[in-house]
Design brief:
Rna Polymerase Sigma Factor, Chain: A; Arc Repressor Mutant, subunit A; mainly alpha; single chain; about 160 residues
Length: about 160
């Protein structure tokens, strides 16, 4: 990958990667760090990464960095995340979905986002995460079950 191809990757994938990292980490500041680390790794491995595979490579790095960050935070603090406020009578679907996604652990959230938000196939997700296709399906099934249980509960919606 040449420098101009690298710059094109940064321009094309920075926003999408940031949104993915935001959803995975739950914090914009952490997402900025993840995205910067992704492009740093891409630059360091630019001679090994094919331009056509750059997107998958970036998402793999973002996923791994998000999971690593989660593991580091969970070792440092066992505190529960603060409960988000919600105003009854004004349902905001985005807030509800964000709260539902917050119920998942880092790995499950990343898998759901890769499949349902980014549209990757099971095989591609397996390549990105290092899991087998069967593991991806099982973990996604479990994650969706948790999401369903959260979303069908009336007290979580109102």
């Amino acid at each position: 990958m040449e420098a101009n191809e690298y710059n094109a990757c940064v321009q094309e994938w920075a926003d999408v990667l940031f949104r993915f990292a935001c959803k995975c980490t739950g914090q914009a500041s952490d997402a900025h760090d993840v995205v910067q680390n992704c492009f740093e790794v891409l630059w360091q491995k630019r001679k090994e990464v094919n331009t056509g595979k750059a997107k998958a490579f970036l998402f793999q790095v973002a996923y791994n960095k998000s999971v690593d960050g989660f593991r580091k935070r969970s070792k440092v603090s066992f505190a529960e995340p603060p409960e988000q406020s919600y105003t009854p009578g004004n349902p905001d679907l985005k807030k509800i979905l964000d709260r539902a996604l917050a119920q998942l652990d880092e790995q499950a959230r990343g898998l759901v986002l890769l499949k349902d938000y980014e549209g990757y196939s099971y095989e591609e997700i397996g390549q990105i995460t290092g899991l087998s296709e069967a593991q991806v399906k099982v973990y996604l099934h479990r994650a969706r079950k948790i999401l369903k249980e959260y979303l069908v509960s009336v007290e979580n919606i109102i």
